[in-house]
Structure formats: C-alpha cells, structure tokens
Design a protein that fits this description.
There is one protein chain. This protein is an alpha+beta fold. It has a single domain, classed as Jelly Rolls (Sandwich). It is built from 2 helices and 11 strands, in the order αββββββββββαβ. The strands form 2 sheets. The chain has an 8-stranded mixed beta sheet with strand order 1-7-8-9-10-6-5-4, with helices on one face. A 3-stranded antiparallel beta sheet has the order 2-3-11, covered by helices on one side. The termini are far apart.
C-alpha cells in the first residue's frame, strides 16, 4: 500500500511539473542591463531604468509626447498579418497606467486555453507578467512602474518574436549607464 501511495504522489508531482512547464516561464528576478547582451536595439523606459532589447529585423518606432510620455511600437508582418507590440511609459504627472489586462477575452475553460500571472522584481522596481493563449492566439501584458508593454491577438509565430523582446527586460540603475 505504501508503494502505491508513493507511486501516486510521484506521478502527481511529475504531472504538476509538466503543467507548470507548459505555462510561461517566471521572470522572477530581472537581471541588470550591464549583465545582459543585446543583439539589436536596446530601448529604455521609465527614465531608462527598464530596458528591452528589440531584435534586428523588427520595425521599431518611438513617439515622444509633448508631456514626456513615450509610445514605442514594434510592428511585425507574419504570414500576411500585421501584429503590434506597444510599449508605453507615462510621465510623472500622467496618473495610473494599465496595471492589469482589462480588455482581453474571458478565460473560459475551453480546451487549449492557458492563462498565467507572474510577478517580477529588480532593485529599480517590480511588475507583473500576464499571459493568455486561446484558440491559437496570444495576448501578453508586462507591467513596470509608470508603464507597460502589450500585444493582443497575436499569431503563435508573432507572439514568439514579441516574447523574445519582452523576455529581454532588464533593469538599469542611473549610475550604470
């Protein structure tokens, strides 16, 4: 009987590990930008304290508002479909920015629907990483102090490329530049 219980517990732990591996990786502690190589263009947000590496070949456009807000757009054409990753940083007087995905599809219990919500941190601040996949489409929102980065309704191929940029998040102290 003890052997059966032990075997059952091992199977449960193993299958739980498989399910967790299928969910997006946890960002956890975000590295310092001085420790991370960027093969592309490094773009800073929140006065340069948070940066992403935009891989070569992605169309990048930055618009700075007259109030100091920053709107970055990365567009990507995959299989005749245009997808967009938006990165936004507000100025100090802007007020609250998007901190959770309030306009995504509902996470009903359809087969193949996965959702995750993970926290990340570094010495400069912290944020959350929300992911949602349903019906062969992906949504992701990565929040950071005074800003966010988000794509919606992306194909799996476009989502993988955008995730590469979002997973490159690093933190940079003011004296590190």
């Amino acid at each position: 009987m003890t052997c059966l219980v032990f075997g059952y517990l091992c199977c449960m732990l193993f299958s739980a590990g498989i399910q967790d591996a299928a969910v997006a990786p946890k960002l956890g502690n975000v590295p310092s930008c001085s420790q991370v190589r960027c093969r592309g263009k490094r773009v800073g947000h929140c006065m340069g304290q948070f940066a992403f590496c935009v891989p070569r070949g992605m169309k990048f456009r930055r618009v700075e508002g007259f109030e100091g807000d920053i709107h970055d757009r990365i567009t990507l054409r995959v299989d005749d479909e245009i997808s967009e990753l938006v990165m936004f940083t507000a100025n100090a007087t802007w007020g609250p920015v998007k901190s959770r995905p309030d306009d995504w599809p509902s996470a009903d219990q359809k087969l193949g629907t996965t959702a995750s919500d993970r926290e990340w941190q570094c010495s400069e601040g912290s944020g959350r990483d929300f992911r949602f996949d349903s019906g062969g489409r992906s949504w992701r929102l990565l929040t950071f102090p005074m800003g966010f980065a988000e794509y919606k309704h992306a194909s799996p191929k476009a989502a993988r490329k955008f995730d590469h940029a979002l997973d490159s998040l690093c933190c940079q102290k003011f004296n590190e530049k």
